[in-house]
């Protein structure tokens, strides 16, 4: 006969479930033990946060005590931060100082990360490098098949990102070659494109903003990066407010929360009020039910429903361009944005109304006909974008079946389209 689980058995079961819901503590894992020891040697002690695996967000930090608004989440000493100062005091420093034209602070940091990763066991930064992601999910790392399924405005930005990283690599090859005396192996093998792509993603997704004074050995790009071991395990939530700043008195980078957080829950910070397209582009993830999310309308779609024979079409377009009304036209959780409606009102002006274009930009009502046509076209664009999202979701589910290796990347794009679809359906109801 099966013995019934007594009260303690039920309690234990509940506790296990709660701990799983809260997150699975990972601080016993070797890489985290070594990271904490390494940080302790550099003056960082923290008994409050634990690395953990969470169901929704993956790896993050869990609090061991309840946090109140105004509490300090983390205070990371300057010695733990990886900055261009760190790079210049390494063996790379003299090569950077000599190199003309000067390299950018970004390339200096990328070079350091690649060199330290290559050094393996010999690297002083090994405990940090061991907990960094091996691969990233930023658009620059995605396969062409996956990129082609992104919404059009993001697809364009993803291609620009890819081109930019590629150009960064090509323009740095000569500098990488100058480092040959430091390595037994050929620098072309060490500083290859995929190594740079990994280093660039590490910096792009993980650095904190920290302004450094301009040094002559660097190009004029702002030197505002710092990698912050352990602190960079904190995940993003759009609904959280924090104050993050380098404290000159304590010489530490500090994050203070403006929200409460229960014991054993994941501690979040906010990377900024970003929509999902920006989050995917810059950080390689999507936040569900993101209040900042929106669906962008490209100028091609904007013009789809206007007669190409409209004699004033070009004049209308140049007015929109001059007044910056062709960018950032969106549908949000509360329907079409004022900017989108204004652009469509201007394009809907009849020949006899055209002289009133300034009033449109000020938000005036021109005529009942203009209002009606604008509403009609806004709804058509909304339905067109709904269909586009549905088609993309169909293609994604098909590709997921065919290409097992792309499942993780496809799931990201799928999440983005699902969120877009929710926003557009909400807008359609409002319209």
TrEMBL record:
Question: Coiled coil: present as a keyword of the record?
Answer: yes
Indicate the segments annotated as coiled coil, or none if absent.
Answer: 389-419
InterPro entries named in the record: Rubisco_LSMT_subst-bd, SET_dom, SET_dom_sf, SET_MeTrfase, SETD3_SETD6_MTase, SETD4_SET
Query: Is the keyword Coiled coil in the record?
Result: yes
Keywords linked to the UniProt accession: Coiled coil
* Domain SET, first and last residues per copy: 47-272
| Gene Ontology terms, MF aspect | protein-lysine N-methyltransferase activity
PANTHER family to which the protein is assigned, alphabetical: SET DOMAIN-CONTAINING PROTEIN 4, UNCHARACTERIZED PUTATIVE METHYLTRANSFERASE
Its protein name is: SETD4 protein
* UniProt lineage: Eukaryota, Metazoa, Chordata, Craniata, Vertebrata
């Amino acid at each position: 006969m099966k013995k019934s689980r007594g009260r303690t058995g039920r309690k234990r079961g509940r506790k296990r479930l709660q701990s799983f819901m809260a997150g699975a503590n990972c601080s016993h894992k070797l890489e985290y033990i070594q990271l904490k020891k390494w940080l302790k040697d550099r003056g960082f002690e923290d008994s409050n946060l634990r690395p953990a695996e969470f169901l929704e967000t993956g790896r993050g930090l869990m609090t061991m005590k309840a946090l109140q608004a105004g509490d300090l989440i983390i205070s990371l000493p300057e010695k733990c931060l990886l900055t261009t100062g760190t790079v210049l005091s390494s063996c790379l420093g003299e090569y950077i100082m000599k190199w003309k034209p000067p390299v950018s602070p970004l390339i200096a940091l990328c070079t350091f990360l690649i060199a330290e990763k290559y050094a393996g066991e010999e690297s002083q930064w090994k405990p940090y490098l061991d907990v960094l992601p091996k691969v990233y999910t930023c658009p620059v790392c995605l396969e062409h098949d996956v990129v082609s399924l992104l919404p059009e405005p993001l697809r364009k930005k993803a291609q620009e990102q890819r081109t930019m990283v590629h150009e960064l690599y090509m323009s740095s090859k000569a500098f990488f070659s100058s480092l040959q005396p430091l390595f037994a192996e050929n620098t072309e093998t060490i500083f290859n494109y995929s190594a740079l792509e990994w280093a660039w993603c590490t910096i792009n997704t993980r650095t904190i903003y920290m302004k450094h004074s301009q040094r002559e050995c660097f190009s004029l790009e702002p030197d505002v990066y710092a990698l912050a071991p352990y602190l960079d395990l904190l995940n993003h939530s759009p609904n959280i407010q924090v104050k993050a700043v380098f404290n000159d008195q304590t010489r530490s980078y500090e994050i203070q929360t403006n929200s409460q957080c229960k014991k054993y829950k994941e501690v979040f910070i906010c990377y900024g009020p970003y929509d999902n397209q920006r989050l995917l582009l810059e950080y390689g993830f999507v936040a569900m039910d993101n209040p900042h999310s929106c669906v962008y309308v490209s100028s091609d779609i904007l013009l789809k429903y206007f007669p190409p024979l409209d004699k004033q079409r070009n004049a209308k377009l140049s007015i929109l361009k001059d007044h910056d009304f062709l960018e950032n036209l969106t549908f949000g959780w509360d329907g079409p944005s004022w900017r989108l409606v204004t652009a469509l009102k201007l394009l809907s002006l009849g020949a006899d109304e055209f002289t009133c274009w300034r009033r449109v930009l000020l938000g005036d009502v021109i005529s009942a006909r203009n209002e009606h046509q604008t509403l009609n076209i806004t709804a058509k664009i909304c339905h067109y974008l709904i269909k586009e999202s549905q088609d993309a979701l169909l293609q994604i589910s098909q590709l997921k079946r065919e290409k097992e290796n792309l499942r993780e990347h496809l799931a990201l794009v799928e999440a983005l389209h699902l969120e877009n679809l929710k926003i557009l359906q909400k807008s359609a109801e409002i319209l």
